[in-house]
Design brief:
Length: about 80
């Protein structure tokens, strides 16, 4: 499942969790604190995962081996 759809599927899952946190947060004087904390945690974890996933899916620098002899290197 390592393709571009993983980002979209993850976004849908996190959006569903944010909606659930909004609806099912405990009622009371700290309801806004609960909602804000849960939604911020979900979004922060998703962003960290998405950035790491995309960095591995499309690396900026292609790794090269330095221990190969020159006659075996194909440019």
């Amino acid at each position: 499942m390592a393709n571009g759809w993983s980002i979209i599927i993850g976004l849908v899952v996190v959006a569903g969790m944010c909606v659930a946190a909004w609806i099912f947060s405990p009622k009371g004087e700290n309801q806004v604190l609960w909602r804000s904390s849960l939604i911020l945690a979900f979004v922060s974890c998703y962003l960290m995962w998405a950035i790491t996933f995309l960095a591995q899916l499309h690396p900026l620098i292609e790794p090269r081996r330095s221990d190969l002899r020159k006659e075996y290197i194909h440019h």
